[in-house]
């Protein structure tokens, strides 16, 4: 604010320019989302009109009906829900302990652990798909939800540890010490003082982890067969030999994206704070 | 405590360097915790390390061994034991002109995507500080919507927008005087198609950069900016000598993460090309995937994946140094 107001120039005019630029950003960045919604609600024949309709001529839900019966919808969605929920529960439980260790204790090898957990995030998932596929094949976990859950921990866990750590370092240690002075044990101080303060951060991290697991595509594609596919892979059902059914596909996309985007809206502010703390604080 | 505190605390040239391997000596707020025994943190870490070892450590070792093996369909079904291939997989790919073309293409693609993402992200983050509150709200909503969009959904949307016959983009461009793009197939050529995919990647990546940088920008002390301005610095000067140095740790982190993500782009290419990327569209990820699962040569696929990981290590090294520095500050 003060960066702008302290300028000697007429503030009203310079703001107008910035606002116009801002609106340009809104239009460009928002267009794909708008186009998804627009296509989802217009009659399928409007979607393949050479002159695109920028608003649905008639508002219809038939694309959603078509999307729902193009292939089983609720099966993949249920599987995605189960996988994401279990991954998050395990991730948070295991990750919280680890995050505590690296943010509240000074111990030998702490730095190595931090670097290790970060390094793990660097390995691209695609690089691991071959051995993971073979491993699950050997363990009889191929095409099993449990197998998918195990593999999703590879990217959920490091992320969880790292962001929870960001939230923990934001809670002043003095609070815990004060509680200990008042007679709490270290564990008691943690449960009564830190844990409640950490709760919003844990919720945000869980939601984020959930979204990541929900959105994963490659492992879901490779490790599950057609009849056990998850929600992201379900979307490819609209691509047929005779072309892509775009209008129902956009309806399907809407069903998959809207809940996720709403979840995102709810927690993103919290997450940005946690991530920034994670980035700049040891 | 804020980003600014930690980073400005770093600015004085020489810090007392703590003895290696021990963080206890650092003049940090949390150095107080010396009680509790060394066993407790390891106990807390054990489940996490165990899981990571199982789900990542073992497959990684397997990746390395695989890349030195002849491993195809018969070995997969267990009809034959995998036999050692020595360096054969590596000599095969490293001696293959196509592989190097893929490496080059991947590096250009990733570099392009990262640079565009970071520049746009920084520009929008700075813009956010200057617009009216209601524009700021609008931008934030749009950014969060595109950020939260599942990659696979975003890919589907872009495919639709860029559709040759009914895509809205060709129609829009054709409104421009002298432009006729109706029926133009964006995916007829690799570079053009990859540019579209790069746009898709950037569109999905910019929001994270903007939101993180915005959070960082709020921590830039206003007094420092004021002081710089009083000393006669222009907008660019303030940015270059005040804002940028303070944001540096965040920028380094974001750039590194972007490099890792953009080198690992897979579903965007795979889905955009209906599961069969043409030679001109192959990046290291899809190339490795193809070798393994289409040609059923898991050894070679693993070797390519391993080379990708090694390539990334160079970048990771920079990130690690930054992280270690941050670790020193506490």
From TrEMBL, chain A:
<dbReference type="Pfam" id="PF00528">
    <property type="entry name" value="BPD_transp_1"/>
</dbReference>
<keyword id="KW-0812">Transmembrane</keyword>
<feature type="transmembrane region" description="Helical">
    <location>
        <begin position="148"/>
        <end position="168"/>
    </location>
</feature>
<keyword id="KW-0472">Membrane</keyword>
<protein>
    <submittedName>
        <fullName>Carbohydrate ABC transporter permease</fullName>
    </submittedName>
</protein>
<feature type="transmembrane region" description="Helical">
    <location>
        <begin position="112"/>
        <end position="136"/>
    </location>
</feature>
<feature type="transmembrane region" description="Helical">
    <location>
        <begin position="246"/>
        <end position="267"/>
    </location>
</feature>
<keyword id="KW-0813">Transport</keyword>
<dbReference type="InterPro" id="IPR000515">
    <property type="entry name" value="MetI-like"/>
</dbReference>
<dbReference type="InterPro" id="IPR050901">
    <property type="entry name" value="BP-dep_ABC_trans_perm"/>
</dbReference>
<keyword id="KW-1003">Cell membrane</keyword>
<feature type="transmembrane region" description="Helical">
    <location>
        <begin position="81"/>
        <end position="100"/>
    </location>
</feature>
<feature type="transmembrane region" description="Helical">
    <location>
        <begin position="189"/>
        <end position="211"/>
    </location>
</feature>
<keyword id="KW-1133">Transmembrane helix</keyword>
<feature type="transmembrane region" description="Helical">
    <location>
        <begin position="16"/>
        <end position="37"/>
    </location>
</feature>
<comment type="similarity">
    <text>Belongs to the binding-protein-dependent transport system permease family.</text>
</comment>
<feature type="domain" description="ABC transmembrane type-1">
    <location>
        <begin position="77"/>
        <end position="267"/>
    </location>
</feature>
<dbReference type="InterPro" id="IPR035906">
    <property type="entry name" value="MetI-like_sf"/>
</dbReference>
From TrEMBL, chain B:
<keyword id="KW-1003">Cell membrane</keyword>
<keyword id="KW-0812">Transmembrane</keyword>
<feature type="region of interest" description="Disordered">
    <location>
        <begin position="1"/>
        <end position="33"/>
    </location>
</feature>
<keyword id="KW-1133">Transmembrane helix</keyword>
<feature type="transmembrane region" description="Helical">
    <location>
        <begin position="99"/>
        <end position="128"/>
    </location>
</feature>
<feature type="transmembrane region" description="Helical">
    <location>
        <begin position="137"/>
        <end position="162"/>
    </location>
</feature>
<feature type="transmembrane region" description="Helical">
    <location>
        <begin position="298"/>
        <end position="320"/>
    </location>
</feature>
<dbReference type="InterPro" id="IPR050809">
    <property type="entry name" value="UgpAE/MalFG_permease"/>
</dbReference>
<feature type="transmembrane region" description="Helical">
    <location>
        <begin position="194"/>
        <end position="217"/>
    </location>
</feature>
<feature type="transmembrane region" description="Helical">
    <location>
        <begin position="238"/>
        <end position="261"/>
    </location>
</feature>
<keyword id="KW-0472">Membrane</keyword>
<dbReference type="Pfam" id="PF00528">
    <property type="entry name" value="BPD_transp_1"/>
</dbReference>
<feature type="domain" description="ABC transmembrane type-1">
    <location>
        <begin position="103"/>
        <end position="319"/>
    </location>
</feature>
<comment type="similarity">
    <text>Belongs to the binding-protein-dependent transport system permease family.</text>
</comment>
<protein>
    <submittedName>
        <fullName>Carbohydrate ABC transporter permease</fullName>
    </submittedName>
</protein>
<keyword id="KW-0813">Transport</keyword>
<dbReference type="InterPro" id="IPR000515">
    <property type="entry name" value="MetI-like"/>
</dbReference>
<dbReference type="InterPro" id="IPR035906">
    <property type="entry name" value="MetI-like_sf"/>
</dbReference>
<feature type="transmembrane region" description="Helical">
    <location>
        <begin position="40"/>
        <end position="61"/>
    </location>
</feature>
């Amino acid at each position: 604010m003060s960066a702008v107001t302290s300028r000697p120039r007429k503030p009203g005019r310079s703001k107008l320019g910035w606002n116009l630029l801002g609106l340009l950003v809104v239009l460009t960045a928002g267009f794909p989302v708008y186009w998804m919604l627009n296509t989802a609600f217009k009659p399928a024949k409007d979607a393949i009109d050479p002159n695109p309709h920028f608003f649905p001529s008639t508002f219809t839900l038939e694309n959603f009906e078509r999307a729902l019966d193009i292939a089983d919808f609720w099966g993949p969605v249920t599987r995605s829900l189960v996988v994401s929920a279990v991954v998050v529960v395990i991730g948070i439980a295991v990750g919280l302990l680890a995050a505590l260790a690296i943010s509240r204790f000074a111990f030998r090898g702490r730095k190595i652990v931090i670097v290790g957990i970060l390094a793990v995030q660097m390995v691209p998932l695609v690089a691991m798909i071959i051995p993971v596929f073979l491993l699950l094949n050997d363990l009889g976990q191929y095409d099993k939800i449990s197998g998918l859950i195990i593999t999703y921990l590879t990217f959920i866990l490091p992320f969880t540890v790292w962001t929870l750590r960001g939230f923990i370092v934001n809670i002043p240690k003095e609070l815990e010490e004060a509680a200990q002075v008042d007679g709490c044990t270290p564990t008691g101080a943690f449960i009564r003082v830190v844990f409640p303060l950490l709760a919003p951060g844990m919720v945000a991290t869980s939601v984020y982890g959930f979204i990541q697991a929900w959105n994963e595509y490659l492992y879901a594609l490779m490790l599950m067969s057609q009849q056990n596919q998850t929600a992201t892979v379900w979307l490819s059902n609209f691509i047929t030999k005779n072309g892509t059914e775009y209008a129902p596909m956009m309806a399907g996309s809407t069903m998959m994206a809207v809940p996720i985007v709403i979840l995102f809206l709810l927690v993103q502010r919290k997450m940005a704070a946690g991530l920034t703390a994670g980035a700049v604080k040891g | 405590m804020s980003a600014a505190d930690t980073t400005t605390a770093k600015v004085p040239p020489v810090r007392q360097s703590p003895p290696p391997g021990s963080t206890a000596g650092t003049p940090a707020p949390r150095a107080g915790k010396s009680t509790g025994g060394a066993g407790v943190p390891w106990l807390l870490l054990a489940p996490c390390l165990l899981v990571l070892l199982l789900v990542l450590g073992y497959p990684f070792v397997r990746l390395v061994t695989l890349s030195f093996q002849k491993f195809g369909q018969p070995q997969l079904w267990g009809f034959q034991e995998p036999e050692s291939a020595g360096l054969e997989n590596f000599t095969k790919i490293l001696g293959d002109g196509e592989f190097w073309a893929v490496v080059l293409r991947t590096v250009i693609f990733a570099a392009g995507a990262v640079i565009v993402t970071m520049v746009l992200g920084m520009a929008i983050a700075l813009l956010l500080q200057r617009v009216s509150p209601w524009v700021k709200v609008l931008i934030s909503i749009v950014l969060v919507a595109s950020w939260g969009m599942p990659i696979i959904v975003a890919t589907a949307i872009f495919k639709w927008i860029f559709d040759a016959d009914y895509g809205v983009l060709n129609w829009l461009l054709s409104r421009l005087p002298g432009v006729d793009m109706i029926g133009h197939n964006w995916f007829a050529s690799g570079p053009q198609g990859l540019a579209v995919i790069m746009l898709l990647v950037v569109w999905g990546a910019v929001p994270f950069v903007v939101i993180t940088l915005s959070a960082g920008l709020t921590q830039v002390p206003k007094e420092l900016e004021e002081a710089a301005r009083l000393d006669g610095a222009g907008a660019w000067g303030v940015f270059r000598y005040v804002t940028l140095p303070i944001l540096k740790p965040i920028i380094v982190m974001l750039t590194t993460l972007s490099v890792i993500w953009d080198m690992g782009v897979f579903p965007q290419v795979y889905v955009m090309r209906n599961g069969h990327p043409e030679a001109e569209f192959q990046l290291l990820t899809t190339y490795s995937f193809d070798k393994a699962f289409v040609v059923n040569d898991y050894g070679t696929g693993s070797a390519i994946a391993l080379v990708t990981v090694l390539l990334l290590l160079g970048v990771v090294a920079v990130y690690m140094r930054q992280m270690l520095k941050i670790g020193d500050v506490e």
